[in-house]
Specification:
By secondary structure, the chain is α+β, with helices and mostly antiparallel strands. The protein has three domains: 278 residues, Thrombin, subunit H, CATH 2.40.10.120; 87 residues, Roll (Pdz3 Domain), CATH 2.30.42.10; 95 residues, Pdz3 Domain (Roll), CATH 2.30.42.10. The protein is 17% helix and 33% strand. 48% of the residues are buried.
Length: 496
């Protein structure tokens, strides 16, 4: 079995490894929201959640927590087509620039790569959360329960920005893990990691929370949200998508990556907090795509140099480098060099924490943002916006006004014929930039500004990045292919 790993340098030659045994595609509950808490269908509180269980948690007895969680963690197996290139473009430098270096055409049936990871049942009617990198680009998803029953999984939707995906199996009366509160986790608190490392099913390990709000730069998405829970519970390839639970057996995170020199466990693992997971899977089921709120600031952490240069009296908070024009932040009155220290009642200590907090909200939500300006405390009422600068719901078949086009993820059969790993199809074209450039319906977008386009979300992120650049010419270079095999490149000036 091939092992696929995402890596990034962390510290001295330490790699961050996405903890699935391989990777593989994309897109699509009705939930109720009460005070920003998501209530999932089928999440009835089991009778086992009693005072006795909570007493066991206080005594660091992990047996009840393990029993509560192990039956709700599943084994996810995938099959993904091995990348093969087509049409004999080996000598086309433009093709290589936009699509990568071609491989030799292979004859016969397309080979498949098998991969595996974990998932967590979050509703008793078959909804399962896992990592996007576990199922990304897969053609087949097989889900095996702890009692060895096996089902075919269907992808409901995925969010590369958080590395979270939602899949569904046709089954009922399934065991679930109750959602906990990742905000209340404390450094030094015991947690359990439950998953299927190296295809060893139903494995439970224990450790403590080593740190919170870690940004380890592992995600490649344009609008990534990284605010991981760091733990020293043993996590290995195959644990991706599995559960991180507290000693009460409540889900507090989805295990996603490890820091390692070898690709195996070396002391540190990272999980997406359940506060982010709830928002993502709720939006995917209800809308087909995440309704991502945008504050409209470019920010970073406060360094010692910044603190000295600006005569700051704090090292905590998110330092605002720039306020985006016409953004929610600008409209509310935030300014460059403000230090954001609080969102509603949550104290913000870093840019990563601010990113995590904003990621919980939807366009149109109204929040209070507290800042330090010239060492004075000010509070602003902010109405968050979406990428298009309004508060409308973004659909999975987004219609971006300025482009004048409607999109859909390219059909797997067409992608297979063209031997493309990914792509988004132009479903229709009306008056707008695409029509002016000559782009026609059926065109499959593969890259924009040399960034891979795997989902509609990627197009919107690329458009947002291009529109918010300070360059005079807001360049939108679109590369793709028509169903007849014609490769075409379009250069669009969004500033016209």
């Amino acid at each position: 079995m091939n092992v696929s790993k995402k890596t990034r340098t962390l510290g001295f030659f330490v790699a961050v490894v996405a903890v699935s045994v391989a990777s593989n595609l994309i897109t699509g509950f009705v939930t109720q929201k009460q005070s920003n808490n998501v209530v999932f269908s089928g999440q009835q509180i089991p009778a086992v959640y009693t005072n006795n269980m909570r007493a066991a948690a206080m005594q660091n007895d992990f047996t009840v927590a393990a029993e509560l969680s192990v039956h709700a963690v599943v084994h996810v197996k995938t099959k993904t087509p091995v990348r093969v290139q087509q049409f004999g473009f080996q000598n086309d430098p433009f093709f290589e620039y936009f699509f990568g270096r071609p491989q030799q055409r292979q004859q016969g049936e397309m080979p498949m790569q098998e991969g595996s990871g974990s998932g967590v049942i979050i509703s008793n009617d078959g909804y399962i959360v896992t990592n996007n990198h576990v199922i990304d680009k897969s053609k087949e998803i097989e889900v095996t329960l702890n009692d060895k029953r096996t089902y075919q999984g269907k992808l409901v939707g995925a969010d590369p920005n958080t590395d979270i995906a939602l899949i569904k199996i046709e089954a009922g009366n399934l065991p679930v893990i109750m959602f906990g509160n990742s905000d209340s986790l404390k450094v030094g608190e015991w947690v359990l990691a439950v998953g299927n490392p190296f295809n060893l099913t139903s494995t439970v390990t224990a450790g403590i929370v080593s740190a919170k709000a870690r940004n380890i730069n592992i995600l490649n998405a344009a609008m990534k949200i990284e605010s991981f829970i760091q733990t020293d519970a043993a996590v290995n390839p195959g644990n991706s998508g599995g559960a991180l639970v507290n000693t009460r057996g409540e889900l507090v995170g989805i295990n996603t990556a490890i820091a390692s020199q070898t690709g195996s466990y070396a002391g540190y693992a990272f999980a997406v907090p359940v506060s982010i997971v709830q928002k993502v899977v709720s939006d995917i089921r209800q809308f087909g795509v995440v309704q991502r709120a945008i504050l409209g600031v470019r920010m970073g952490d406060i360094t010692d140099k910044i603190a000295k240069d600006k005569n700051l009296k704090t090292m905590e908070g998110a330092y605002v480098d720039e306020v985006v024009e016409n953004s929610a932040a600008e409209k509310a009155g935030l300014k460059k060099e403000d230090i954001i220290i609080k969102v509603n009642d949550f104290n913000v200590k870093s840019a990563t924490q601010l990113q995590e907090q904003i990621g919980r909200f939807s366009p149109g939500d109204k929040i209070k943002v507290t800042v330090l300006r010239n060492n004075k405390t000010l509070t602003f009422d902010v109405e968050l916006k979406n990428r298009q600068g309004n508060t409308s719901v973004v659909s999975s078949n987004a219609n971006t006004d300025i482009l004048g086009a409607e999109f859909k993820v390219a059909d797997p059969k067409i992608r297979s014929q063209l031997q493309l790993e990914y792509g988004v199809e132009v479903k229709s074209v009306t008056k707008g930039k695409f029509q002016q450039a000559g782009i026609k319906a059926g065109f499959i977008i593969v890259k924009i500004n040399n960034q891979a386009i795997r989902s509609i979300d990627d197009i919107e992120a690329a458009l947002d990045a291009a529109m918010n650049t300070s360059d005079q010419f807001k360049v939108f270079n679109v590369a793709g292919i028509y169903p007849n095999g014609k490769i075409t490149y379009y250069a669009i000036n969004l500033a016209d």
